[in-house]
């Protein structure tokens, strides 16, 4: 397994991370999620990503249970704060009040003494950036977190907070978790260059475009029972619909054939496609079974021919997804 540093930190993360967004939801599936997490660790994964809002805290609980008994120094847990955890005005955002309350709740659910990477799950336009950054700096000083990062922040927002932290000698964010795949490349024009310039590592989420880049969906055929396209993904159903457009699926099938000619599955090629970008520290992959995590981890050890990436770009660039007009930061993300 290859390891890369988390931005300007000294921590080395496995290039394949395990995400918990849709898999660690408790109930009957908790046992399988625990087995999957432990298998990932056995295979060399040392970064496990979750969030307080995933299943309203249940994902943190399941992840904590899965890692119980594992030597603490050998893995990193990344979780997040920002999205609503209740119905009152104080139950969301990046205010000092919300951050300080939620970090303790996350620690309790995870069963940990500290969080390795605490991430701002989104940008909060109603809270001063210096309030958020100071709260994070204080959490590092207290030992409750080791590093902090952001998620879905655009280049202007990222530059502002990093500059502020450096001016005040506060601990700056080391990562920015961003959606990135061969079907969602909107960060390439501005955000990726800014991350490289500021030495902020990118954690790419949804590298398989919600499963579409596994090649398991076929144009004209209804999605199989149990797949994300069949069950839906809630607030991102609009994006899943774009990824499963018949024209996109036909292009994905062509890309699958190209990967097969190079001796790879499309999923393996798609994960390595993200890792061709030096700013990407780790690729956050989901898995609902040990078999799936084994497939994802295998991609971390591959060295595909460079011309395969060129071929994937040629096939998928014309059908890459574009955000709707209401999407936050749409002007920043534009590749026009």
Automatic annotation (TrEMBL):
Single GO MF annotation: oxidoreductase activity
Coiled coil, from the record: none
Record domain NADP-dependent oxidoreductase: where: 16-316
Keyword Iron: no
Keywords: NADP, Oxidoreductase
SUPFAM superfamilies linked: NAD(P)-linked oxidoreductase
Family: Belongs to the shaker potassium channel beta subunit family.
The name this protein goes by in its record: Aldo/keto reductase
Organism: Jiangella asiatica
